[in-house]
Design goal:
This protein is about 30% helix and about 25% strand. The chain is an alpha/beta fold and about 280 residues long. The structure holds hypoxanthine.
């Protein structure tokens, strides 16, 4: 879709609807990527709100993305889990796919944990690895498709937000510590977003490697930009669902299967992080 400029009223409408459906006051938001939905089953006293019920919420049409908010208690924290997300390639505008992040902020969420499935550009990465995102390349945004394009509402954030520490250094340290203590190997690197939905050609992968990307996917970056615009702290984790080093074909079913295999590790990691977030 071309540009679409949403306003605070759009975000407030959705936030008010969600507040009417739950007694919880979440402070931590978790976005679950392709194949990673199982974590949502851990949430206690959960209120489950299908995206189709929420005014203005984008609804994902992709296999592996059953769209609902799961709001409840987890390891002593009140969390809002997005079970599935909508993508730019589905035809939504940048502002529409990031509306849920704005809504979380209005509901009181101050810390965002974003997850995704990604292709491994770094030649040392293997399918099933978990990567801490330490920075991103906004490839789609460089060409103009930035979720902040359009009028800026100063009550939501500044016109020119800083992205020098988009991935919170303290949360990165916490993730490293939890991984170490739980014997989980944690890769680190730069995530690059491409619009998709076609996977990368071998020449695309060579370009991404030259750029300094370690992992490539079709989400996350717009959400992180909007979260930082709104002053949220962000932690990003990629599940490397396939290696792009070998020029092997990428298959969506394989992406989902790698997600299933890595769920126990990724869940343990996120649980340890959420437990210790201040
Ligand atoms: N490329 C882009 N997005 C992806 C990939 C990939 O190889 N794997 C999972 N999401």
């Amino acid at each position: 879709m071309a540009d679409e400029f949403l306003t605070r009223a759009d975000f407030e409408r959705a936030a008010q609807y969600i507040a009417s459906r739950t007694q919880h006051h979440p402070t931590i938001g978790i976005v679950l990527g392709s194949g990673l939905n199982a974590l949502a089953d851990r949430i206690a006293r959960a209120d489950v709100i299908p995206y189709t019920d929420i005014p203005g919420f984008p609804v994902s049409t992709v296999a592996g993305h059953t769209g609902a908010l799961v709001i409840g208690e987890w390891v002593g924290k009140t969390v809002l889990v997005m079970r599935g997300r909508a993508h730019y390639y589905e035809g939504y505008s940048m502002q529409r796919i990031t509306l849920p992040i704005r809504v979380m902020r209005l509901l009181g969420v101050h810390t965002l944990i974003v997850t995704n499935a990604a292709g491994g550009v770094n030649e040392t990465f293997r399918a099933g690895d978990v990567m801490l995102i330490t920075d991103h390349i906004n490839f789609v945004g460089m060409a103009g498709a930035n979720p902040l394009r359009g009028p800026n509402d100063e009550t939501l954030g500044p016109r020119f937000p800083d992205m020098s520490h988009a991935y919170d250094p303290d949360l990165c340290d916490l993730a490293r510590a939890v991984a170490r203590e739980n014997g989980i190997t944690l890769r680190e690197g730069v995530y690059v977003m491409l619009a998709g939905p076609s996977y990368e050609s071998p020449a695309d992968v060579r370009v991404l490697r030259l750029f300094g990307a370690d992992a490539v996917g079709m989400s996350t970056v717009p959400e992180v930009i909007v979260a930082r615009h709104g002053g949220m702290r962000v932690l990003g984790l990629s599940l490397i669902s396939n290696s792009l080093a070998s020029h092997a074909q990428v298959d969506h079913a394989e992406v989902l299967a790698a997600g299933r295999a890595a769920i126990p590790r990724l869940t343990a990691l996120i649980q340890g992080i959420v437990e210790r977030i201040s």
